[in-house]
Amino acid sequence: MNAPLAPARPTRISLAVRDSSTMLRRNLLHARRYPSLTLNLLLTPIMLLLLFVYIFGDAMSAGIGGGGADRSAYIAYVVPGLLLMTIGSTVVGTAVSVSNDMTEGIIARFRTMAIHRPSVLVGHVVGSVLQCVMSVVLVGAVAVAIGFRSTDATALEWLAAFGLLVLFALAFTWIAVGMGLISPNAEAASNNALPLILLPLLSSAFTPVDSMPGWFQPVAEYQPFTPAIETLRGLLLGSEIGHNGWLALAWCLALTVLGYFWSTSKFNADPK
Question: Which of the 8 DSSP states describes residue 126?
Fold first, then answer.
């Protein structure tokens, strides 16, 4: 009789997928059990949306358009920036979560287990991107409820806008993971990730770059949020995109590569 065949050993790729899926479920369970951090970070763009539309909307629209006050026009202008700001706010929670894992000893436990080591970071990244998508959908729903409309965008343009938001979330999630890894505690991680919330305020999210003081315009123009915001406006509202589309993709690619190598090098370094 022929000897029974030995069961096939799982491949390296299948092990990586299995372990990454396990880590993803772990991080999603943490987010579900402790939603307060995500909700607190999500409230920032929603409150800014309501504040700028209902308190400053008429004045801001008159200043931008050079004509009469038109709150609906300012809603259309400000929503793309706030969608990207939502991503910056959400990934702050990722930095805090990674820092908690590093300081509470669970990472040391994972290092002793026979698991695919990068899966720990992959679980954080994929979970954060999913949270970013859900947060963007929620803020977008609030924007639609108060009057935002994009009637001229085609299905392809909507798909491109969604793809840009996902790429942006991926890029900044890897940066946030690196910030969490270098932080000694959760409070420091939150502080280190604060620029991800502040940068949109220094971009074209709320007012055009050419309306800013001349000395400040380079700060607003040469940063990742402004080209991404202008690209999103072009896709959803039909405004001119120009070179901003390529700049936005270049920023996403550069930040993803930088964040990935920074995070993995810090994670794989021997603990002190």
Answer: H
d(CA 182, CA 176) in angstroms, rounded, equals: 10
Q: Which residues make Cβ contacts (< 8 Å) with residue 142, sequence separation at least 6?
A: 46, 49, 50
- Direct distance between the N- and C-terminal alpha carbons of the chain, in angstroms, rounded to an integer: 57
φ, ψ for residue 204 (rounded to 5)?
Answer: -90, 20
Cα–Cα separations (whole angstroms), residue 11 to 15, 110, 114: 6, 20, 14
pTM: 0.85
- Residue 36 buriedness (CB in 10 A; 0-12 / 13-18 / 19+): exposed
CA distances from 13 to 114, 119, 237 (A): 14, 11, 42
155-182 and 225-237 helices, crossing angle to 10°: 160
Say which amino acid occupies 245: G
Q: Render pLDDT for 207-260 as a digit per residue (tens, 0 to 9).
A: 888 888 888 899 899 999 999 999 999 999 888 898 999 999 999 999 999 999
**Cα separation of 116 and 3, whole Å?**
32
Euclidean distance between CA atoms 194 and 197, whole angstroms: 5
Alpha-carbon distances of 172 from 66, 81, 182, 192, 248, rounded to whole Å:
35, 15, 16, 13, 13
Instruction: Tell me which H or E stretch contains 138.
Output: helix 118-145
